[in-house]
Amino acid sequence: MMVSQTKAKKSVWKRSLDARTALLYLLPSILLFSVFVFYPMFRTIYLSFFLTDQNGNAALFVGLENYTYLLESVAFRNSIKATFLFVLYTVPTGIIIALILALLANEKLKGIGFFRTIYSSTMGISVAASSVIWLFLFHPSIGMFNKLLNIFNLPQVEWLLDPTWALLSVSLSTIWLNTGFSFLILLGGLQNIDEHLYESARIDGASYWYRLRRITIPMLSPTLFFIVTISLINAFQTFGQIDILTKGGPSQSTNLIVYSIYKEAFVNYQFGTASAQAVFLFICILIVTILQFKLGERKVHYQ
Amino acid sequence: MKKVELIDISKSYDKQSNVISNINVTIEPGEFFVLVGPSGCGKSTMLRMIAGLEEITDGVLKIGEKEVNDLPPSKRDLSMVFQNYALYPHLTVKENIQFGLHVKKIPKKDRMIRTSDVAEMLGLTDYLKRKPRELSGGQRQRVALARAIVNEAPICLMDEPLSNLDAKLRAHMRSEIRQIQRRLGITMIYVTHDQIEAMTMGDRIMILHEGSIQQIGNPIDVYNNPANPFVATFIGSPPMNITSGVGDKESNAIRLNDSISIPVPFEDERYLMEKIIVGIRPEHIKAATKESKEAEKILVEVVNVEILGNETVFSFLMGEGSWQVKWSGQWQIEVGDKIPLIMNYESFCFFDSEKKEIIKKPSDVENHVFGKEVFV
Ligand SMILES: Nc1ncnc2c1ncn2[C@@H]1O[C@H](COP(=O)(O)OP(=O)(O)OP(=O)(O)O)[C@@H](O)[C@H]1O
Ligand SMILES: [Mg+2]
């Protein structure tokens, strides 16, 4: 009896050897994640149930009141709408443009390396720096866009000051900014496709479009899926360009959710409602990502 | 069935040196033509030029009677099997086979009939719903074959299609491909670096080395009368034994080394040159028997022995390298044994040491050729 027990104990200790080894290797990232991801996340969820003081400490437990307040708030609903519109404007367009550029840059031509560098170069520019440049381009009187419109005798546009244009303008700069990264990932995906597949299809007489539809897109689907997921999450979390270009204005038209969280927390010092918004955003991204995995995965072909 | 004619074809990738130079050959309709050569000699390049995947730098390519230099691959009416099969990984076996038919807008009914016919011929009927990654190497190879055959193109190109398979499957597929080619009567251009494949499959073989033709002919002719030392050592396993010899006018013999020399008959005096390349097939070196004349016996020391079932191959040192001898049967030979051998003058090939051309063919190969008369 005793013997068998110690045996069992020993074997548990022994059997967990792999798990313990794995844990040891995981330890650094577990520590990092705990400090910078898990702790803030749980702290946010915790705070979303409280009213806070100026220093962001929980002061009064209010249960779900922060959430009910949010759902009734017109400003918050507006912010959600703006965010979804922004996602809609930037994600599909950005990926399609990146895909077209990647297809072009994947051709075997002399000097194509130059274009590959140019197309991916926006990856090397920080959001802040590029936003400042776009600020100049959008400038109502000295900006290049209005100068161009002037040349063609078109009416001037208040790019960042007109509520109907502001979100589009920010989207435009965001698309430009994200193209480099998407382009690079998609180009990598394209280069991974076996050249012989195309040669075989050419012998069969398949046209360029046929090859694109029947070979390139299906073979690229895992990469496309990846880039769509990343772009969606990125779009939901946009902050930098808003802060520099519009500060959420004009008349709240570009007050995307992350910017709204920032304002709520660090301008209005309402850490409780800000946390509730953050949790809400987290749930939104989670749902969208799960949906995407459920719907998208069926169409994705993995090697 | 169409013929393929290459007239003075050259190819250069860098516009400086030719990867392939001055290829002249006509591949007859319905022929099984094998292109063989060591790695990097330009076989794939040549095949890809015929397919239209690679531009022809110089010369004229004709398919049928038409010049096709500027025709895109799809207009050349041929099919190709790639070395790595190039199956579409995201499509099922059936969709893979039908890809070309889809492109050519063949009606659905025809498509189904042709697919099931080909699938049956190649034993793929049970796998039509699977993806390529769920197949074994041999099955993938058959799908690639099916994809080429189903198009019913008159010309089929294959680039080392068997190189990824194990020895047994390779032997099986060799005969399978050959049978299908015969049944359908397609013109086959088949690339391989494996001389056994070339010997067993080809109606004619073309040996390529560093981009130029070494010899074209039917496999047995090439084996018996190799045009130059390269072909002699490339075709045949083990390869032909080659060494350089010195003609000695006084003793009327060609000296191979200090102890071995080949007596040359009076009428062949012209071979007694300063320098000459001498070759003999391993199986043409015989064991000395009691009847052999003492003067003809050559005593050699065995340095290596291999017994392959009913075949014994041993080697002895000669010049810088070693020569091999192949006898049938299981011979009890040990390393270090001294063995008396006979090498008939008639079995030797001589090659010009400058031009590397054959100047004396082995004249007793008839001894090794058997007609149907031997059957009772
Ligand atoms: N795209 C290319 N650009 C430059 N050189 C090339 C290219 N393709 C092949 N070559 C060169 O051409 C020569 C012949 O190549 P090829 O692929 O035809 O050889 P191969 O006979 O098919 O060899 P293997 O048996 O290894 O497949 C090689 O020296 C190779 O380096
Ligand atoms: Mg090759």
TrEMBL record, chain A:
| CC per GO annotation | plasma membrane
Sorted keywords for this record are:
Cell membrane, Membrane, Transmembrane, Transmembrane helix, Transport
InterPro entries reported in the protein's UniProt record: ABC_transporter_permease, MetI-like, MetI-like_sf
Statement: the UniProt record of this protein carries the keyword Membrane? yes
| Cell compartment(s), UniProt | Cell membrane
Pfam families, sorted: BPD_transp_1
Gene Ontology BP annotations = transmembrane transport
Transmembrane segments in this chain: where?
21-42, 82-104, 125-145, 165-187, 217-236, 274-293
Topology in the lipid bilayer is annotated as: Multi-pass membrane protein
Q: Which residues form the ABC transmembrane type-1 domain?
A: 80-292
Query: Does the keyword Transcription belong to this entry?
Result: no
Chief location: membrane
Indicate the family of this protein.
Answer: Belongs to the binding-protein-dependent transport system permease family.
Q: Which PANTHER family match?
A: ABC TRANSPORTER PERMEASE PROTEIN, INNER MEMBRANE ABC TRANSPORTER PERMEASE PROTEIN YCJO
Q: What protein name does the entry list?
A: Sugar ABC transporter permease
Record organism: Psychrobacillus vulpis
Q: What is the lineage of its organism?
A: Bacteria, Bacillati, Bacillota, Bacilli, Bacillales
TrEMBL record, chain B:
Q: What is the lineage of its organism?
A: Bacteria, Bacillati, Bacillota, Bacilli, Bacillales
Domain ABC transporter: from-to ranges: 4-235
For this UniProt entry, the molecular function terms from Gene Ontology, in alphabetical order, are: ABC-type transporter activity; ATP binding; ATP hydrolysis activity
Q: What is this protein called?
A: ABC transporter ATP-binding protein
Extract the NCBIfam families matched here. PRK11650.1 (NF008653)
Entry keywords, A to Z: ATP-binding, Cell membrane, Membrane, Nucleotide-binding, Translocase, Transport
Q: Which GO terms describe its cellular component?
A: ATP-binding cassette (ABC) transporter complex, substrate-binding subunit-containing
User: From which domain of life does this come?
Assistant: Bacteria
Record SMART domains: AAA
Q: Which GO terms describe its biological process?
A: carbohydrate transport
